[in-house]
Prior knowledge:
- This protein has 6 helices and 5 strands, in the order βαααβαβαββα.
- It is an alpha/beta fold.
Amino acid sequence: DNLTTVYIDCQQPGVYQRRWFELLRFIIKDVATKMGSELNPIESRYTEQEASNSFEADLRAIASDRGVERIIIALDEIEHITFNSSPAAHWSNDFLPFWQTMRAVHQETAGLLTFLIAGVCPAATEAALVSGFDNPVFQSVTPEFLPPLDRGGCIAMLKQLGRRMGLT
Length: 168
């Protein structure tokens, strides 16, 4: 198979509490594990100054070693690593370098890295500027909004999920 998808749930404190460069290392470790690669990203290479280059180099090494042409990083609950909505205040500053890296690596690797983002707050994709700088995610993704549930879908959701929460 020439495609691998790695799912990251951004609402986990172990994800959003990490700084942007630590999250890149966390993602690479997940990619390596999922793909059966023995690559172990060295923590000292994932500093604020080196993380972007290390991330790209490690991604290329894993893909080459495993014969993969595309790696999709699926980031769910994206608002947890987005400016003005994350429970961790550092994402107001970390949003830009994280997404600058993701976008640059996507471009530099000719699509080897592809990312999919999902969440309930579209601010990450709709704000043209973040702290006065160009938002690297703005107009680089095509948002797709799920339509509201119809009556039957709403009833099914309430029955399946609501029952577990004690809803009657």
